[in-house]
Amino acid sequence: MYFQRELIVRDMALVDAAVTFHCLTPRPIRVTLRQPTPEEAAKDTAFATRCIASMEREPSSQAVLEAFEALAAHTLPRGTAPEEYIAHRTPPTGWVIPNLSRLPESFRSFLGQVAQELHDAATRTVHVVRWRRRIAGSHSPFMSGGSRWSFDGQTWHPLPGEIRIVGEEGYVPIRLDEVERVEIERLVGEERSEPLGHALLREAWHQRVGNPRSAIVIGIAGAEVGVKECVADLVPGAEWLVKNVPSPRLVAMLKDYLPLLPVRLKIGGLVKPPPVAILNTLTKGVNLRNDVAHVGRAGPSYDTVDEILRAVRDVLWLLDYYRGFEWAIDNLSGETVTALGIGS
User: The CATH number of the domain where 222 resides is what?
Assistant: First the structure.
């Protein structure tokens, strides 16, 4: 079987019509950079190049092969989930390609491996070209141009994808009551600002879709800075040590040291560490950050980044509460509120 992944690369233009690279990755992959056709150029951004990664690979099992055969015949594979999942319709046949979430797990797993290998080869090739030729541009200049599969390399079918709507939080009108107005006025008068941990998390959250590796690195840094800010605020004379002495591991600090701090507010008379689920997620985040920073690992999935940054967010709000900001506890997620036994 044959598979292709196409990307639109912004801010890079070719003089030649096309150039092809044969990448000796774990499986041979051919990566072609080509000029867009006139029709594509009319839709693409200026100075764009098309990047197509292609590979040949046999299905991992008979069930996966049968799923491809069913899709080629415009029928649903066995084990497809119910219709309430999102699907999208493609011209000209009107055949409804099921959303990837609906398809059997074995098929999704195989397709995920293929898609990741093609994406990695394509993006690494572009990054090396930009490095070798000193081409400027954004960290992630890629837009999706679609993915395809074929039994014979001649007749191509679109690969099932996953429709995901990524929204931002907090874009709603707000009304500040008098208590909030006075508090904000006091904080500004004391020359306070948003804690740096929150500022870093805000930056990481903005990066989570286009630059997931950066999001992980910045997000975990935000949690580490948040802990240091909390210690410096609560322990007189500790600010110099916190700023200048390497701190213990993040999860150990939250689990073992946080309950020992002289906090200004408690939960049911106790200083509780973040719930186990949060600590486990942060452990995953720290390991990913170390892999990205020291090994150059490929970026994590959107779901993984989202999970880790939400854990960092809950930790920062919990630290704010312990520092004396009573309202911060209202910003914790419902799962964390339940796990901490707040209000019970």
Answer: 1.20.120
